[in-house]
Amino acid sequence: QVQFVESGGGSVQPGGSLRLSCAASGSIREIFFMGWYRQTPGNEREMVASFTSRGHIAYDDPVKGRFTISRDNVKNTLTLQMNDLKPEDTAVYYCTGDGKWGQGIQVTVSS
Prior knowledge:
Radius of gyration: 13 Å
Distance between the termini: 40 Å
Shape: globular
Number of strands: 11
Structural class: mainly beta
Helix content: under 10%
Number of helices: 0
Mean pLDDT: 96
Largest sheet: 7 strands, mixed
């Protein structure tokens, strides 16, 4: 079974950028749905960006135009480029695919 490990989180000032990476322990070529979710304390995990099972890309409205999701089926990685970060982007970010979740990584946007 494929496992995921996120990296690239941290603290950044508003307007800054971060690049999250998710490394899979095996091939993701046949995993059609993959995505990034985020969760804040007391709230449910919510989809941020994803590759749908039909091969389309979907973004949550608050991140459209600022975040970009990409995948590399050779390197078996999923990436989330986050630009123009806002304090409301502060959350734990999770990579998911094939029903599996990474351990999550903290992103904090604060001045």
